[in-house]
Amino acid sequence: MLPSILNTFTIHGPNGEHTCNVTSPARASLSDLKDGSWVRLFQINVARALAAQLVLAVDYVHARGFIHGDLHMGNVLLKSPPSFDQLSPEEIYEKYGAPELDPVVHLDGKLLPPGVPSHGIAPIWLGAPSEKITLPEARILLTDFGEAFSPKEAKSESHTPLVSRPPEARFEPNRPLSFSSDIWSLACTIWTIIAQRQLFEGFLATEDYMTREHVDTLGILPPEWWKRWDARPDNFTEDGKPTKRNPYRSWDDRFEDSVQLPRQEVGTPLFDAEERDAIFAMLRPMFAFRPEHRSTTKQILESEWMVKWALPEYEKIRKGD
């Protein structure tokens, strides 16, 4: 579930030397699969298997003393099928199309400056709409370790996208991030895997908007954060009731709107009440505002939803059922 470096080489070009790592190709990121779909949903068995693998991968990283630091759907890739490695370049071109060269030109007709390539190559699409992904195809790679770090580095700045960034990165900016910061982002990613939309939504959102989303969904912030949040009076009363300018959407509302209703509309199976409750029981401790109160990956793997629903679906893939 983690990419292996198969080879390395150095490119000597007009802009200097660049060391390149060769890894196995992947089909697409999970976010790309959703972007390629009108439905933006995975089949329930596929969603379970994807979530299980992601937790296993993060558990592996944490067990070796590292924090990923940038967990989101764009950094979880769908593996290429084993048959892909057997294709010759000609067969790849026949199946997916030959490379398309797009010329790079100056809009004013001037010559290109040194170091600028004469053309670019559009990437081929190896993915499929999210709802078309089958269980045997649902194997993942957790990638992009550019933000990974060891707790010994005492890193306190998070570059995770705002919609999945843990709140302590804002309210305790001088406190070193820990494994628990990954747990918050992991919970956001699991939600997006099983849902049509993200739990905390906001296009070009600000920090204040995201904090409002957190409080809407999870309740009042820890007292010292609540007092320091300057925009709180514009959004909530002192006791946490939303103002008229802030329509309230609870955890239950979001599950119905983003998980159940979209599945009902396209005629796919829904999560039954027992499984829904197990999902809630697993995710809520992962979304504890205080980092020290969040679940560990070991505890997540021992949760009812993982044991009863998610891990068994991954086991079917592993055994080739």
Secondary-structure map:
Layout: E1 7-13, E2 16-22, E3 26-29, H1 30-35, H2 44-63, E4 76-79, H3 89-96, E5 101-103, E6 119-121, E7 140-142, H4 168-171, H5 179-194, H6 207-218, H7 223-228, H8 232-235, H9 251-265, H10 273-286, H11 297-301, H12 304-319
Antiparallel strand pairs: 1-2, 3-4, 4-7, 5-6
Characteristic terms for this protein:
321 residues; mainly alpha; Transferase(Phosphotransferase), domain 1; 2 domains; three-stranded antiparallel beta sheet; two-stranded antiparallel ribbon; 12 helices; 7 strands; protein serine/threonine kinase activity; ATP-binding; nucleotide-binding; ATP binding; Prot_kinase_dom
Question: Your description of this structure?
Answer:
The protein is mainly alpha-helical and 321 residues long. It has two domains: 21-80 and 126-319, Transferase(Phosphotransferase) domain 1 (Transferase(Phosphotransferase), domain 1, Orthogonal Bundle), CATH 1.10.510.10; 87-125, no CATH class. It is 39% helix and 10% strand. The protein contains twelve helices and seven strands. It has helices at residues 30-35, 44-63, 89-96, 168-171, 179-194, 207-218, 223-228, 232-235, 251-265, 273-286, 297-301, 304-319, and strands spanning 7-13, 16-22, 26-29, 76-79, 101-103, 119-121, 140-142. Strands 3-4-7 form a three-stranded antiparallel sheet. The protein has a two-stranded antiparallel sheet with strand order 1-2. A hairpin with a 2-residue loop joins strand 1 (7-13) and strand 2.
